[in-house]
Amino acid sequence: MTTTTITHAPGETRDRRPNAVREGWLIAGRDVLHWVREPWGLIFGLAFNVMLLLMFGFLFGGAIDVPGGGDYIAFLLPGMFALTMLFGLESTMTAMAEDAKRGITDRFRSLPLSSASVALGRAIADLASSALSLGVLMLGGLLIGWRPTTGPAEIVLAVVLLLWLRFALLWLGIYLGLSFRGAGATTAVQVLVWPIGFLSTVFVSAETMPGWLGTVAEWNPVSATATATRELFGNPTGATSGWLAENAVLAASVWPLVITLVFLPLAAAAYRGLRR
User: Fold this and answer.
1) What three-state secondary structure class fits 216?
2) What pLDDT does 14 receive?
3) What is the mean pLDDT of residues 241-262?
4) What is the per-residue pLDDT for 227?
5) Distance separating alpha carbons of residues 162 and 160, to the nearest angstrom
6) How far is CA 80 from CA 31, 60, 223, in A?
7) 115, exposed or middle or buried, with CB in 10 Å at 0-12, 13-18, 19+?
8) How far apart are CA 257 and CA 255, in angstroms?
9) Composition of the chain by helix, strand, coil, percent to 5
10) Per-residue CA distances from 193 to 125, 154, 274 (Å)
11) CA 72 to CA 144: how far, in whole Å?
């Protein structure tokens, strides 16, 4: 009987076990390169948000009063930041659905990759894209007169809460993209996103709405983030009384956690359930 000795070449990696973090970064790089080659979706999405900002800020803003007083532009900008995080849901869902429909996700599944790496890569790439969009929108706000009036710690916390909401909505988008890949899936998500975005305190205070509608708007996760960031930026909140006026930062912290705890496991189950 002979014994075979296996030697490894210098520099050869011996541990080939899946590493979700490393593989997620590699897949995120692939998604970023796709945007570099075809940037129009990202550009048009950002242009649409800027258009909404200009339309509501200058076309309708003169007719809207902020409860408690304050400039409407200062009230609107943090709401637009939160709305941008919500609108990113559609791009996440569409990208995941396209990859699954074209068989790219199945190719990833055939490789010795961690089951979490594909979703993690999408999450990293989309979060980076949203951070870029948020930075551009904040710069645009500064150019039209918006100013945060608090210190650096509060401003950083406001940005963290905005990206925290986007992180939570990523898992909802990934779940929807893996679960619904038909021709009408994107339309269905738009039908979902627009009422959630507008039935909130993004554009007007809940105190200007009928009682029951204002209550619904106050319990919207987007409203929580919008109100919390207004408070942290030192801008008018439009909330002079009620639970949200006193606990906006808490609500903006808890809502994304709840969404993540619900949809992250659902997204993982949807990925495992894809046909090979």
Assistant:
1) helix
2) 43
3) 92
4) 95
5) 5
6) 26, 14, 11
7) middle
8) 5
9) 75, 0, 25
10) 21, 28, 25
11) 12
What amino acid occupies position 70? Answer: G
Residues 6+ apart with CB under 8 A from 239: 67, 68, 201, 205, 206, 207, 227, 245, 248
| C-alpha distances in Å from residue 127, one per residue of 2, 65, 153, 201, 229 | 55, 33, 21, 23, 18
Q: pTM for the full model?
A: 0.82
Expressed in angstroms, the distance from the first to the final Cα of the chain is: 42
User: Are the CB atoms for 177 and 94 separated by under 8 Å?
Assistant: yes
| 5 or 26, greater pLDDT | 26
Average pLDDT over residues 89-113: 70
Q: What is the pLDDT of residues 172-218, one digit of tens each?
A: 988 888 887 665 666 777 777 888 888 999 999 988 888 888 889 99
**Going along the chain, which residue ranges are E strands?**
none
Q: Which of 79, 83, 91 is nearest to 236 (CA)?
A: 79
pLDDT tens string 109-141: 666 555 566 777 778 888 888 898 899 889 888
pLDDT confidence of residue 3: 46
Name the token pair of 55.
Answer: 């339309």
d(CA 137, CA 57): 13
Long-range own/partner contacts, residues 36-40 (CB < 8 A, 24 or more apart): none
Question: Any idea where the domains of the chain sit in the sequence?
Answer: 20-272
